[in-house]
C-alpha cells in the first residue's frame, strides 16, 4: 500500500507545472497534473465508496437516473474528465467528489431532495469541485506545507468495528472528508449554478436546496448536522449568493427552465417507500453502539421485514450477533448479506472474524483477504497476522503485524507487541541492548530490555582481546522485565597487569 502512495507521489511531482484553471480561467500553480488527478480518482474511487457504505444496489434504476442527470451536467462542464456518479448506501446526507471527476451521492441525501433540478444543484456543485481542481489544490497545499499528503487515520462510517483504513486507501478517505474552505464552496455554488443553467435546469433549485440545508441544520440533532454536507457546510451566505446568481442568469437568459419534480419523485418513489426500514436501521445502529443489543436486534429485524432486499440490514444484524458471541447466527446473517451484495468489504470482514471464532481458519483467511482487497483495514490485517502465526508462518505473520503497527488506531500497540514477540528471537540484539563496563577485576555488561515484553532468559556473548589474545565467553541471564535493566558479569578474572582491549557484549539469543 505504501508503494502505491509513493508511486502516486513521484507521479505528482514529476508531471505538475503551471497552468490555467479550466473553470475560473485563472493562472495557478499545478503540482498535481491532470493525468495524476485522473489516476488518483480512479485509484481511490472504489476504496472511498467502500469506506462510505458501499453502493446502494436495491434500486438500480435510481442509480441509472442519477448517472443520467450527472452526465447531462458533465457534458456542459468546463473540463473533460472521466466523470462517474454513484449512489452510496449511507444514511448520512452527504455528497463528495474525488479529483478526476469521481462523484458520489449518499442515499441519505437523495431522500431530502424534491426535484431533479435540486439533484442537479448537488451534482453540479460536486462537478465544479473536481473540474476546478479543489481536491487537487488541497493536496498541493498539504504537499507544500508538510511535504506529505497523509496526516491522520480515518475511520470508516457506520461501522461496528474500529475499522481503520490502512495504506494508500487513506488518501481517498482524506480527500472526501476534508473541508475545501469557504472560497471553494462559493466557487462550486457559482459555477454549479452556471452548469445547471447550461443544461436547462432551473437555477432557483440551488436556492431552495441551500435554504433547506440551512433549515435542516437548525432542526436536526448535532450528529445529523455533522453528516450534513460534512465537506460542504451550508450557510446563509451561500443562500444569498445563490439568489444573486440565479437572478442574474434568469434575467439574461430566456429558457423554459426545467425543475423535473414529477420525474424525480417517480424515480425516488421506491427508496422513499422504504424510509421506515432505513429509519429502523439507523435506530438499530444507535442502539447497538450503546450496547443495547436486544432492542437493536428487534429494530434491525423490523428493518428486514420492511425491506428484505437490503444487504446492509443483514450485515448489521450479523455484526450485533457477532458482538453477542452468537457466531453461528452471525455466520448465517453474513451469508444473507453476501447473497445480496458480494462486493462490500464489511460483510467479508465480519464473516472472516466469525469463521476465525468458529475455528475455520481457511475460510477466515479467504474472507479477510477479500475484505482487504476491497478496503485494507487494520482489523483484517491483524487477524490475518494471528491466523498466519497459528498456521506456523512466522514471516507472513510478521508482515501483517508490521503493517498494522505502522497504522493508526487501537490495534497499533497490540500489533507492535505481536511483531516484536516474533522479531525479537530473530534479532535479539536489536531489542536487548548491552553496555559494557570494567568493574574491579572483571568485565560487566548492563542489559537493557527496550521493549515492554518480559524476557525469560537470554545469552550474552562477551568478546575481548586479552594480552593480545582474542577471547570470548557466553553467559546466561534470567528474567529481564519489560523496560528494565540487569547487570551481568563476564566471569573473567583479570590481573592488574593484564591488557584488556576491544571489549564487546551482545545478546545472541533469548527466550520469552
Ligand atoms: Zn462543496
Describe what you observe in this structure.
The protein is an alpha+beta fold and 512 residues long. The chain folds into three domains: 2-179 and 259-271, no CATH class; 273-425, Tetratricopeptide repeat domain (Serine Threonine Protein Phosphatase 5, Tetratricopeptide repeat), CATH 1.25.40.10; 428-511, Immunoglobulin-like. 56% of the residues lie in helices and 14% in strands. It has 22 helices and eleven strands. The strands form four sheets. The chain has a three-stranded mixed beta sheet, sandwiched between helices. α2 packs across α7 (169-177) and α13 packs antiparallel against α14 (293-306). It is elongated, with a radius of gyration of 30 Å. Mean pLDDT is 88; it is low at 1-15 and 147-162. Zinc ion is lined by residues 125, 129, 180, 185, 188, 232. Residues 125, 129, 180, 185, 188, 232 line the site of zinc ion.
Brief write-up:
This protein has 512 residues and is an alpha+beta fold. It has 22 helices and eleven strands. The protein has helices at 2-15, 34-51, 60-74, 107-110, 116-131, 134-146, 169-177, 182-199, 204-219, 222-227, 236-252, 261-273, 275-289, 293-306, 311-323, 327-340, 345-357, 361-374, 378-390, 394-406, 412-426, 428-431, and strands spanning 17-20, 27-30, 84-88, 95-98, 102-106, 432-439, 442-449, 457-466, 469-477, 485-489, 500-511.
Amino acid at each position: 500500500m505504501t508503494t502505491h502512495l509513493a508511486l502516486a507521489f513521484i507521479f505528482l511531482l514529476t508531471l505538475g507545472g503551471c497552468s490555467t484553471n479550466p473553470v475560473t480561467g485563472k493562472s495557478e500553480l499545478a503540482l498535481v497534473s491532470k493525468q495524476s488527478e485522473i489516476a488518483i480518482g480512479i485509484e481511490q474511487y472504489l476504496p472511498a465508496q467502500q469506506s462510505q457504505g458501499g453502493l446502494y444496489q436495491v434500486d438500480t434504476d435510481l442509480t441509472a437516473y442519477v448517472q443520467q442527470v450527472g452526465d447531462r451536467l458533465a457534458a456542459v462542464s468546463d473540463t473533460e474528465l472521466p466523470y462517474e456518479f454513484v449512489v452510496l448506501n449511507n444514511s448520512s446526507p452527504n455528497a463528495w467528489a474525488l479529483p478526476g471527476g469521481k462523484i458520489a451521492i449518499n442515499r441519505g441525501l437523495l431522500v431530502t431532495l424534491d426535484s431533479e433540478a435540486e439533484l442537479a444543484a448537488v451534482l453540479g456543485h460536486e462537478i465544479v469541485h473536481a473540474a476546478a481542481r479543489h481536491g487537487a489544490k488541497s493536496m498541493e497545499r498539504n504537499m507544500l506545507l508538510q511535504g506529505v499528503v497523509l496526516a491522520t487515520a480515518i475511520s470508516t462510517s457506520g461501522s461496528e468495528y474500529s475499522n481503520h483504513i490502512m495504506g494508500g486507501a487513506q488518501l481517498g478517505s482524506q480527500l472526501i472528508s476534508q473541508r475545501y474552505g469557504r472560497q471553494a464552496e462559493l466557487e462550486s455554488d457559482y459555477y454549479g449554478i452556471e452548469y445547471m443553467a447550461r443544461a436547462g435546469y432551473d437555477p432557483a433549485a440551488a436556492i431552495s436546496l441551500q435554504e433547506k440545508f440551512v433549515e435542516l441544520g437548525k432542526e436536526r440533532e448535532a450528529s445529523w448536522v455533522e453528516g450534513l454536507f460534512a465537506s460542504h457546510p451550508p450557510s446563509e451566505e451561500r443562500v444569498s449568493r445563490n439568489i444573486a446568481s440565479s437572478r442574474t442568469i434568469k434575467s439574461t437568459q430566456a429558457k423554459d427552465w426545467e425543475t423535473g419534480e414529477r420525474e424525480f419523485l417517480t424515480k425516488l418513489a421506491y427508496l422513499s417507500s422504504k424510509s421506515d426500514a432505513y429509519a429502523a436501521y439507523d435506530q438499530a445502529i444507535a442502539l447497538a453502539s450503546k450496547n443495547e443489543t436486544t432492542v437493536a436486534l428487534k429494530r434491525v429485524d423490523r428493518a428486514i421485514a420492511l425491506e428484505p432486499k437490503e444487504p446492509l440490514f443483514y450485515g448489521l444484524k450479523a455484526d450485533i450477533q457477532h458482538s453477542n458471541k452468537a457466531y453461528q447466527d452471525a455466520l448465517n446473517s453474513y451469508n444473507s448479506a453476501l447473497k445480496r451484495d458480494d462486493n462490500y468489504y464489511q460483510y467479508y470482514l465480519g464473516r472472516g472474524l466469525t469463521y476465525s471464532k468458529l475455528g475455520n481458519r481457511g475460510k477466515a483467511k479467504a474472507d479477510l483477504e477479500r475484505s482487504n482487497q476491497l478496503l485494507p483495514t487494520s482489523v483484517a490485517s491483524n487477524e490475518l497476522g494471528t491466523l498466519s502465526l497459528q498456521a506456523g508462518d512466522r514471516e507472513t505473520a510478521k508482515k501483517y503485524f508490521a503493517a498494522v503497527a505502522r497504522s493508526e488506531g487501537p490495534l497499533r500497540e497490540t500489533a507492535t507487541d505481536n511483531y516484536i514477540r516474533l522479531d525479537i528471537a530473530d534479532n535479539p540484539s536489536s531489542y536487548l541492548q548491552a553496555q559494557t563496563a570494567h568493574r574491579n577485576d572483571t568485565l560487566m555488561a548492563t542489559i537493557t530490555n527496550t521493549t515492554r515484553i518480559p524476557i525469560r532468559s537470554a545469552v550474552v556473548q562477551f568478546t575481548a582481546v586479552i594480552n593480545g589474545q582474542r577471547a570470548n565467553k557466553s553467559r546466561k541471564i534470567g528474567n529481564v522485565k519489560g523496560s528494565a535493566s540487569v547487570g551481568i558479569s563476564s566471569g573473567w578474572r583479570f590481573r592488574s597487569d593484564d591488557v584488556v582491549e576491544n571489549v564487546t557484549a551482545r545478546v545472541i539469543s533469548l527466550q520469552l
